[in-house]
Design a protein that fits this description.
four-stranded mixed sheet; 16% strand; Glutaredoxin; alpha+beta; globular; 195 residues; 8 strands; two-stranded antiparallel sheet
């Protein structure tokens, strides 16, 4: 039990060290500047990246799964991306297997499923954990106590809208469809804002 606790403490310290290393600074309960974009992630092909390659664009971050009741939202997310990518919108999919094992496949299988079943062309990233002890630093920044919109990820297809300055500005639950008026209004506001 002590070893398990020590491992948990070590991982938490490692996450904090990583956040500090990439310059994640918290000011009045919000993530300062574009620090969110500098958190290291891996894409679906395993390459090290950061979201800073999308700097100056609005980013809709979504935790996705292939065997979920909400999986059909891939279609709406792709339509949203196609309709607004030329105006500066990026949809970023992050597969997660933490909700009843609804994303059991490998990254390669997830990639193939998304392309073949829904024609997904928006950026997809490697599977990660969005909650719990092994929570990825990106989702800790999006959902933790220092986030402007804190609270655990409730299920697959939670949506986080980051504005052109790299700030989290809106958050939507799984049942909010990509075509919903609420989400579309937030996306429009983010796209109208200057970088």
């Amino acid at each position: 039990m002590k070893n398990s606790f020590a491992t948990s403490v070590q991982f938490t310290r490692s996450k904090r060290a990583l956040l500090a290393m990439v310059g994640l600074v918290f000011v009045t309960g919000a993530i300062a500047g574009d620090a969110l974009l500098k958190i290291p992630v891996r894409d679906i092909d395993g390459r090290e990246r950061t979201l800073s390659e999308f700097e100056g664009k609005a980013i809709l971050i979504v935790n996705v799964a292939s065997k979920c009741g909400y999986t059909s939202q891939y279609e709406g997310l792709e339509e949203l991306y196609q309709a607004h990518k030329d105006r500066g919108l990026v949809v970023a999919g992050f597969p997660c297997n933490q909700f009843f094992g609804q994303e059991p496949g490998s990254n390669a299988e997830v990639k193939a499923f998304c392309r073949e079943s829904y024609g997904v062309s928006f950026p997809m990233f490697a599977k990660l954990e969005v909650k719990g002890e092994q929570q990825h630093p990106l989702f800790e920044a999006l959902t933790g106590q220092k986030s402007p919109l804190p609270g655990k990820v409730s299920w697959n297809f939670n949506k986080f809208l980051v504005d052109r300055q790299g700030r989290l500005v809106a958050r939507f639950g799984s049942s909010t469809k990509p075509s919903s008026q609420k989400l579309m209004a937030a996306v429009e506001a983010a796209l109208r804002a200057k970088p």
